[in-house]
Specification:
134 residues, mainly alpha, 2 domains
Length: 134
């Protein structure tokens, strides 16, 4: 074991770590671009297939070309997805916590429905009691 450690100096360790980091970065980039290709609504099925084949056959050139052609749109799509995910999460939290409408807003809506004749007196009283209880 000590023979291997003696032959594998600190410079070689740093060099190996650099190459390993570049490999991880490369792998992450390929996966990210494939996900972006599949989520791109502007591309047809054939376009998605051609980009995927291009990235597999000529990886460096394919990825560089994809980033040049679709890089800006990719960032916009990622931001839109993050925004819609955040909005959906906030809506789910509000719904689950029961804070979608305050009791006063709910009472106002119920009063409007009752005055319009949509709710009967008994339905209005039951819904009003439920809204006041929370």
């Amino acid at each position: 074991m000590s023979v291997i450690a003696a032959e594998f100096g600190s410079g070689q360790v740093l060099w190996s770590l650099l190459w390993f980091s570049l490999f991880v970065l490369w792998f992450w980039l390929v996966i990210t671009i494939f996900v972006d290709i599949m989520h791109n609504p502007d591309l047809s099925g054939w376009g998605k297939g051609l980009w995927a084949v291009g990235i597999i056959i000529i990886p460096f050139l394919g990825i560089i070309l994809y980033l040049i052609v679709n890089g800006g749109k990719s960032a916009e799509r990622a931001a839109d997805e993050a925004r819609s995910y955040d909005e959906a999460t906030q809506a789910y939290i509000r719904q689950t916590a029961g804070t979608a409408d305050s009791p006063s807003e709910e009472l106002t809506k119920l009063a409007d429905l009752h005055s319009a004749g949509t709710l009967s007196d008994s339905e209005y009283e039951a819904a009003k009691a439920k809204a006041v209880q929370g």
